[in-house]
């Protein structure tokens, strides 16, 4: 039983990318699926597919075989929730990374939340 499925998924992606895996299996949930959709939209992963209780992610590597994304940092945890307003959202790594915010409109990147003027729970940083 996993206590924090988002932290588990971020750790699995981080470990899989560091070992150069072509496919990474994540536990399926609505929040993890939304995060994976954002990562695909932002170009951090090539593709993903849902097969029953798992999500299979294909990470993106550059021509030299290095991963496009190297860091997955969980910010809000079950024991310490972190909430931000739209004014508190800042660019990650000078715009080279993204933050993921859970808003009343669903999960979105920090840049999208800031442009819409909404805040929410600060889920993670990815760069």
From TrEMBL:
Domain of life: Bacteria
A GO molecular-function annotation: structural constituent of ribosome
GO biological process: translation
InterPro entries: Ribosomal_uS8, Ribosomal_uS8_CS, Ribosomal_uS8_sf
GO CC terms: cytoplasm; ribonucleoprotein complex; ribosome
Functional description taken from the UniProt entry: One of the primary rRNA binding proteins, it binds directly to 16S rRNA central domain where it helps coordinate assembly of the platform of the 30S subunit.
Family to which the UniProt record says this protein belongs: Belongs to the universal ribosomal protein uS8 family.
Subunit composition and interactions: Part of the 30S ribosomal subunit. Contacts proteins S5 and S12.
Name of protein: Small ribosomal subunit protein uS8
Species the sequence originates in: Candidatus Dojkabacteria bacterium
Lineage summary: Bacteria, Candidatus Dojkabacteria
């Amino acid at each position: 039983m996993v206590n924090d499925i988002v932290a588990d998924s971020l750790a699995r992606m981080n470990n899989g990318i560091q070992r150069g895996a072509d496919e990474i299996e994540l536990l399926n949930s609505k929040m993890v699926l939304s995060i994976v959709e954002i990562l695909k939209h932002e170009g951090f992963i090539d593709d993903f597919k849902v097969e029953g209780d798992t999500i299979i992610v294909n990470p993106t590597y550059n021509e030299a075989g290095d991963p496009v994304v190297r860091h997955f940092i969980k910010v809000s945890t079950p024991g310490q929730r972190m909430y931000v307003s739209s004014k508190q959202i800042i660019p990650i790594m000078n715009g080279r990374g993204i933050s993921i915010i859970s808003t009343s409109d669903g999960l979105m990147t920090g840049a999208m939340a800031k442009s819409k003027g909404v805040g929410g729970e600060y889920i993670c940083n990815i760069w």
